[in-house]
Amino acid sequence: QVQLVESGGGLVQPGGSLRLSCAASGFTLDNYAIGWFRQAPGKEREGVSCISSRDSSFDYIASVEGRFTISRDNAKNTVYLQMNSLKPEDTGVYYCATRMQFCVDTPQWYKYWGQGTQVTVSS
What we know:
By secondary structure, the protein is mostly beta strands. 0% of the residues lie in helices and 50% in strands. It contains no helices and 11 strands. The chain is globular.
């Protein structure tokens, strides 16, 4: 059974850091792209970052460039999203999702999704 489980969310002050994890089970990540998406209250889900099966990474939101870093550890079957210099506008539920090989920023092209982890940036 394919499963993705996110963890690492929480409440953090502006300027703080969090590292989100997306642990996969039921399949191996080697041939898959993993995308991170977020959804703020009242807003549509948007692509944040993605890493392809060949370790090419993409940022889909200009404001996260230089602050967020996506990485993968195939030995642990896990993808990470390191988030630094967090801002209140980064608040939302963060989801990871997977699709074959290539990254795209459109949620509907991803087949499997995790349940999400809440990130709240507030003083």
